Amino acid sequence: MIFKDCICFQLGAVSRKITRYYKDRIAPLGLTHGQFFMLVALLDEDGVLPSQLADKTALDRPTTTGLLDRLERDGWIERRLDANDRRTIRVHLTPKALAEREAILVIFQDINGRFLQQFSPTEWTQFQSFLTRLDASDGQELDQVS
Question: Is pLDDT above 70 for 141?
């Protein structure tokens, strides 16, 4: 099979290209790609559980914990005990993050918008459907290949 017909190669190549665009734009903020998207998720909904952030960003929990550790160390977020359940920790944006809210959202919306412009609304809906189908696959199809 040649690379142009390999879905893993094609998705990976596009993902790396998009990541490069983000890295160039977020470098002045001192954030990594993963940290940036964690902040975008928190700007969408602040005060959530770390497990909710992991689910929202499609990252495993150890990776999420590492990203949150570094964001906390650098003053972007803070972990606070839940007021109603002191066994629960919630993640909150700091004043530093809130001060950069507009810059973060402009970067996110600009880059995402540039890529979305490549699709008609119908194409984007179809593409999302294809990605959802791939993501929902439980891998059994791959296990059956001999």
Answer: no
Domain parsing of the chain, residue ranges: 28-113
Single-letter amino acid, residue 135: D
For residue 70, the model assigns a pLDDT of 98
Three-state secondary structure call for residue 5: helix
Alpha carbon distance 122, 13 (integer Å): 23
pLDDT higher than threshold 70 for residue 142: no
Q: What is the pLDDT of residues 104-119, one digit of tens each?
A: 999 999 999 999 999 9
* Rg of the Cα atoms in the chain: 18
DSSP string, 120-142: -HHHHHHHHHHHHHHHH--SHHH
- What phi and psi values does residue 94 have, to the nearest 5 degrees? -95, 170
Place of tokens 């003053």: 75
Give the CATH class of 28-113: mainly alpha
